[in-house]
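Summary of Year 1 activities. Much of the first year was spent building the evaluation harness for sequence design. The harness presents a backbone, in tokenized form, and records the residue chosen at every position. We chose the following record to illustrate the format because it has been used consistently in internal testing since the harness was completed.
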């Protein structure tokens, strides 16, 4: 799936690819800039570094714990013999059995790491989606604005021509008044187109985390690189690997581990220990050898706790001190020494029932969220599919309508040339084509934007899927052909010269024999 590939591509390229917002940016470039500048995405990347550290700490539970301990007692009181005792020993403890508690804790950390990875994917996809939608909107508004600019050239040419004819009283006053009304309507639409273009660029800067005053230039011609396909109506399945779906499944696994931990809390923990060292009563160096072994036992019994410790030691000679947990230091002589201790706490784990209730509630909540999210994604995918089909049908409808209006305009152009149609009526016919073309542009980009929403739900590549494909070079399409055909109507907007056209004056062309210089 594209999600899996994109993670490796992003991690590899983020260090070798840096794009400046001052360049001419493509769709892909805008996404790179937005991801690099998004502080929340960088924070999520930093959070992911925590879990390897936690896993490393849990692995240390299996390793023996080593430590060097020093203990000293000094007594120099009046009317008493001076006493001095020092004890230096190397101690070791090894966990023998914990009922699988450490392994479950390690698994919890691993699942939390996977959950955080899915949350990072969700955030990344949301950033890509927001930037892509804003990018498409900015391109749409730029294209519409450029169409208005071309239309403005045509309008200024006709206005100048109409003013000349009005001075010569070739144009009736009623037609001059209609011209004025058309002028106000057109300029009002042009002002709105310019404002919406600027707003769309500001929105794109916002999702890319650029300063409003920072320059942003987009590579023109996105419609010439996009190849769109008719939507295939079939059974639409939401991607099982959608980050939200995977996150919910992982949360269920985590809640099950929590329940398993509480169900196994009765299993005992066994710790084996030992020590090796020297002590003495006359300062350094210490001459009396000591060593010993200990065994600790701890378990929970229905909210009550049971703990037991036993230790067996040996001292070569002299007097030593044995430290018994809960009882303090006790004097021992040369030879073997030992102690046993035990304690039973009756119902001392007062929060045990609350933990069980929270665990069951968490499991129920995780399952409910999984069911709710699955249903939400399916409904969202289906409603988006309906909008997608609607958008494509409208695009085809206005595409054909605009094309037919263009053919009709060519005929009216002939009628205007032979003065069978007034200039104002011809301008109105051009306006009909322009309005239809503007609607075609709207539905074209609306289809691509809706398809983009859908591919994030189905797990397809946002740049190449069954609805459209982004090429690295320009490709012909019915949409770009329509734009070119419309622009050709205004390709030769020139003021009518007062003198006849001259022959070619450039020496770089060979002239035919019948042409004069």
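For this record, the design step produced the sequence shown next.
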């Amino acid at each position: 799936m594209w999600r899996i590939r994109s993670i490796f591509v992003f991690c590899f390229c983020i260090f070798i690819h840096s794009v400046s917002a001052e360049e001419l940016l493509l769709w892909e470039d805008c996404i790179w800039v937005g991801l690099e500048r998004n502080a929340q995405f960088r924070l999520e990347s930093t959070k992911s570094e925590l879990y390897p550290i936690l896993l490393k700490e849990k692995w240390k539970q299996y390793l023996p714990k080593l430590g060097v301990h020093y203990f000293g007692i000094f007594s120099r009181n009046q009317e008493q013999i001076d006493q001095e005792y020092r004890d230096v020993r190397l101690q070791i403890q090894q966990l023998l059995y914990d009922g699988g508690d450490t392994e479950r804790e390690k698994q919890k950390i691993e699942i939390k790491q996977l959950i955080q990875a899915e949350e990072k994917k969700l955030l990344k996809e949301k950033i890509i989606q927001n930037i892509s939608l804003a990018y498409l909107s900015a391109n749409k508004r730029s294209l519409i604005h450029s169409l208005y600019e071309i239309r403005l050239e045509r309008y200024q040419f006709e206005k100048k021509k109409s003013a000349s004819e009005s001075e010569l009283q070739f144009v009736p006053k009623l037609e001059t008044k209609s011209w004025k009304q058309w002028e106000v309507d057109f300029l009002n639409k042009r002002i709105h187109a310019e404002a919406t273009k600027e707003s769309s660029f500001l929105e794109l800067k916002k999702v890319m985390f650029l300063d409003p005053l920072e320059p942003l230039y987009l590579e023109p011609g996105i419609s010439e690189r996009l190849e769109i396909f008719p939507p295939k109506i079939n059974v639409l399945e939401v991607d099982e690997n959608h980050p939200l779906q995977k996150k919910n499944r992982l949360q269920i696994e985590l809640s099950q581990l929590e329940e398993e931990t509480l169900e196994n809390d009765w299993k005992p923990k066994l710790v084996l220990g030992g020590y090796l060292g020297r002590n003495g009563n006359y300062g350094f160096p210490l001459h009396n050898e000591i060593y010993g072994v200990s065994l600790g036992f701890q378990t929970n019994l229905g909210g009550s706790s049971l703990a037991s410790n036993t230790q067996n030691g040996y001292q070569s000679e002299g007097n030593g001190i044995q430290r018994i947990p809960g009882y303090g230091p006790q004097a021992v002589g040369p030879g073997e020494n030992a102690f046993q201790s035990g304690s039973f706490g009756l119902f001392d784990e007062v929060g045990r029932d609350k933990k069980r209730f929270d665990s069951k509630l968490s499991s129920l909540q995780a399952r409910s969220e999984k069911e709710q999210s699955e249903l939400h994604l399916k409904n969202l995918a289906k409603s988006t599919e309906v909008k997608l089909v609607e958008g494509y049908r409208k695009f085809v409808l206005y595409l054909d309508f605009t094309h037919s209006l263009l053919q009709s305009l060519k005929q009216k152009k002939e009628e205007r040339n032979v003065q069978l149609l007034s200039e104002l009526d011809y301008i109105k016919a051009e306006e009909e084509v322009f309005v239809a073309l503007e609607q075609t542009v709207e539905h074209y980009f609306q289809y691509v934007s809706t398809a983009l929403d859908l591919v994030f739900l189905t797990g397809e590549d946002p740049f190449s899927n069954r609805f459209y494909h982004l090429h690295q070079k320009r490709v012909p399409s019915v949409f770009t052909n329509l734009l070119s055909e419309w622009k050709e109507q205004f390709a030769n907007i020139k003021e009518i010269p007062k003198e006849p056209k001259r022959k070619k004056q450039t020496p770089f062309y060979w002239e035919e024999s019948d042409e004069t210089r």
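The two ends are 68 Å apart (CA to CA). Quantitative recovery figures across the full test set are reported in Table 2.
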